[in-house]
Write a structure and sequence with these properties.
mainly beta
Length: about 60
């Protein structure tokens, strides 16, 4: 289990969450109907950017 702290550029909003897999820069995380692009990862701290919609996903 991986525990993360995510923040948004130019805001004081912080979210805490856990994941079964390790996350990396350029991944997308989805919380309910909200989607976030991971701009960078530093240890367990993620810099997030809100995304409107996802058009294409590949694995």
């Amino acid at each position: 289990m991986f525990y993360y702290k995510g923040a948004f550029r130019e805001t004081d909003n912080v979210i805490y969450f856990k994941s079964d897999i390790s996350l990396a820069a350029n991944d997308v995380v989805i919380f309910g109907e909200k989607k976030y692009f991971i701009q960078s990862v530093e240890k367990e701290f993620l810099l997030l950017q809100r995304v409107g919609s996802i058009v294409f996903v590949s694995v």
